[in-house]
Write a structure and sequence with these properties.
- The longest helix has 19 residues, at 661-679.
- Helices cover 37% and strands 23% of the residues.
- The protein folds into four domains: 5-173, Dna Ligase, domain 1; 179-302, 2-Layer Sandwich (D-amino Acid Aminotransferase, Chain A, domain 1), CATH 3.30.470.20; 322-425, Glucose Oxidase, domain 1; 445-679, TIM Barrel (Alpha-Beta Barrel).
- It is an alpha/beta fold and 680 residues long.
- The strands form five sheets. An eight-stranded mixed beta sheet has the order 14-21-20-16-17-18-19-15, covered by helices on one side.
- It is an enzyme of class 2 (transferase).
Length: 680
């Protein structure tokens, strides 16, 4: 069993199939320097090997094939039998010895140990609450591991997967917090990504599932980590972990209105949240806990950010649909499907993927089945415990009091953002819907002119005519070595045509001659000089440019491509040498700055702040010199936050792939309108 037991600090997201996302993310946090409770993982490989060598695998598979899934009673009885077998079947001696050795290591630093399953990538049904053990012996830890494995074979899990379950088990220190809470890198209500949103309570954060409004709320500015909102909330009750168990106890009167954590601790948390967000390159929610000495990160949830188009898509698509019922929002999102009523647990096995499920109330036992659904309609009023489960479910959901208009198997659309249920489903693939989207949103964004320009980048001359029809402010031509034709510049006669030329190339002089000839026809050609890594090389290149009769003017600009850190450091000297602007090459600068390819940096790098500072330093110097600033974005560009930041910094234009100009214009337009509102 080479990978039966792994320590959390050994893991990263490449291990998701082995240890599950929860454990893999804890490993990622550890590797970027955040403090997590010490622990290890009994991997899914260990479970599968044991099932195979013990003979349980074949027995379980045979019964799964013959099981009558339409009979809930039989499924439940089968689940009980498997659990009993899991708890009684012996483990391999070598594995048992390894587990005991690992357990002793964490017992040296903690009296309390938690045991919890970690769902693997394709097995969402294997969630469980942590079992906390008080000063356990290795034998007790082994027994808790068996119990965690047995939970994987619950009737709900079997009914949801109908195959041999997969799962890992996390065994780690259990923190007895004095304070704890949640922290978001995005406002969970407004979606504002420029602030860190922090909740703090006395005791364990589980109290927030009982009363979502209890405790303190802090808002921290992401740019400087300064607190600008500090709302101290009354807290009468707290959950304290005593002897490994949760106890609900009153908060002493002097502490009920007291701030839960200090300003320094709030700012420290905000810094950690930003670090996690920078690592995953997505908005995040972290669960944190503080003991007498340290703040620990207990878990992280990574969100997918909707684009500006997606944020209004729901309203546009449901405009023409009849309203059936209106209530309150449960979980944002839009989904359609046939209605399935779960009036009784006996109907659980009937739920099929893509259906919209109606239930009286949401419970933890229902999660495995409902994960297959497209959306959820809950008949009860909005409750904190329901809200916590919906966060786990992550499906569009609404709370409605009146469901008389909802008929079984009727096609409905659930808009979680507005709390409404509509009759029918929008034809999202039809040209009519796409036209509606474009007319209502893109006429104000992608089709409008913006103060920040949008240039199309391309390297294939045959695409010039097609690109010339786009709503762009110019083009950035990066020719292949064998295709340096400049005849296509005439297609963009009324717009800047920036031609990228490498100074160190053998064809530098001959290409300059071609450039001069092309300018005789088209006066719109500018030059982006690549490969000039020192001010001296820039001067030499300019001398060569001048020698062929090309001189800087209103119609001929020389831009310097910023590709290496040395250029950023000496940016003032480059500007003094005489240029008309800079082209910040994101991909090249990232690769040279971190010694890694662009994709690796974006998915693995813990701290991208040096990269951002390089951008800011270059832009500031260029603005002081009153020259043009172009940002040449990486291929597959989608970083909305960085686009907004560059707009705020005041760059001249963004250079993106030709097929990304429309979306980029959309983001730029929205960012500029927000900037105007903020200044007014």
């Amino acid at each position: 069993m080479s990978k039966a037991i792994l320590w959390l600090n050994e893991l990263d997201r490449e291990d998701i199939d082995l240890v599950g996302r929860q454990a893999a993310d804890l490993g990622e946090l550890s590797k970027i320097g955040l403090k997590i409770p010490r622990g290890f993982v009994v991997t899914n490989e260990a479970l599968q090997n044991w099932l195979s060598t013990s003979g349980l695998e074949e027995k379980i598979k045979q019964n799964l094939r013959n099981l009558d899934w339409d009979n809930p009673q039989l499924v439940s009885e089968f689940s009980i039998l498997i659990k009993e077998a899991v708890l009684k079947t012996p483990l391999e001696k070598a594995f048992q010895a390894s587990l005991e050795a690992a357990s002793r290591k964490i017992q040296k630093s903690s009296k309390f140990i938690s045991v919890q399953t970690s769902p693997v990538k394709d097995q969402d049904t294997s969630t469980s609450e942590a079992t906390v053990l008080n000063n356990p012996s290795p034998v007790k830890i082994l027994a808790s591991l068996r119990q965690a494995w047995a939970l994987l074979f619950s009737a709900e899990s079997l009914r949801g997967s109908r195959t041999l379950p997969k799962g890992a088990v996390i065994i780690q220190e259990s923190i007895s917090p004095t304070t704890s809470g949640l922290a978001y890198s995005i406002d969970p209500d407004s979606g504002d990504k420029k602030q860190v949103f922090i909740r703090a309570v006395w005791g364990a954060s589980e109290i927030l599932s009982v009363d979502s409004k209890v405790g303190d709320t802090y808002l921290v500015d992401k740019t400087n980590s300064k607190i600008y909102v500090s709302k101290i909330g009354q807290q009468n009750l707290q959950i304290i972990k005593l002897a490994g168990k949760d106890k609900e106890l009153p908060v002493s009167s002097p502490f009920q209105f007291q701030q839960k954590i200090t300003a320094a601790e709030i700012e420290n948390l905000a810094v950690q949240v930003k670090k996690v967000e920078n690592h995953f390159l997505r908005p995040v929610q972290i669960t944190w806990a503080q003991d007498e000495e340290n703040i620990f990160i207990l878990s992280v949830k990574v969100f997918e950010t909707p684009t500006p188009l997606a944020s209004v898509r729901g309203n546009l698509l449901t405009l023409s649909l009849p309203l059936l019922s209106s209530g309150s929002t449960g979980y944002k999102g839009l989904a359609s499907g046939p209605l399935r009523s779960l009036a009784s647990l006996k109907n659980l096995h009937r739920v099929r993927g893509g259906e919209v499920v109606t239930i009286k109330t949401l419970t933890k036992n229902l999660l495995p089945t409902i994960r297959k659904s497209a959306a959820v309609i809950i008949e009860s009023s909005r409750q904190p415990q329901n809200q916590a489960l919906l966060e786990k479910l992550a499906k569009p959901a609404v709370f409605v009091g009146d469901k008389t208009a909802l008929k079984e198997r009727q096609i409905v659309t659930v808009d979680g953002g507005s709390g409404k249920v509509f009759s029918g489903a929008p034809n999202v693939g039809s040209s009519k819907v796409i036209d509606t989207l474009r007319k209502t949103l893109l006429t104000r964004s992608a089709n409008e002119k913006t103060a920040t320009g949008v240039f199309a980048s391309f390297s294939e001359p045959s695409l010039a005519t097609e690109i010339g029809q786009k709503n762009i402010d110019g083009v950035f031509f990066k020719p292949n070595e064998s295709k340096t034709t400049l005849d296509i510049a005439s297609v963009f006669a009324n717009q800047p045509f920036i031609f990228r030329l490498k100074y160190s190339s053998e064809s530098f002089s001959t290409t300059l001659e071609s450039l001069k000839s092309a300018r005789a026809v088209g006066k719109n050609i500018w030059l982006a000089l690549s490969g000039a890594k020192t001010p001296q090389e820039l001067l030499e290149a300019k001398k060569a440019i001048t020698s062929v009769g090309l001189h800087r003017s209103e119609s001929f600009k020389i831009l310097l491509s910023i590709e290496v850190p040395a250029q950023v450091i000496a940016i003032e000297k480059f500007l003094e040498a005489g240029i008309d602007g800079v082209c910040i090459d994101e991909a090249a600068l990232t690769k040279t700055l971190f010694g890694s390819d662009q994709q690796t940096v974006l998915t693995r790098l813990a701290d991208t702040s040096p990269l951002i500072r390089s951008f800011e330093q270059t832009v500031e110097a260029a603005k002081n010199a009153k020259v043009k600033i172009f940002f040449v974005a990486r291929a597959g560009y989608s970083d909305q936050d960085l686009i907004e930041k560059l707009v705020d910094l005041g760059i001249t234009a963004l250079v993106v792939n030709a097929d990304e100009t429309e979306r980029t214009r959309e983001i730029v337009a929205l960012a500029e309108r927000r900037t105007v509102r903020n200044k007014s």
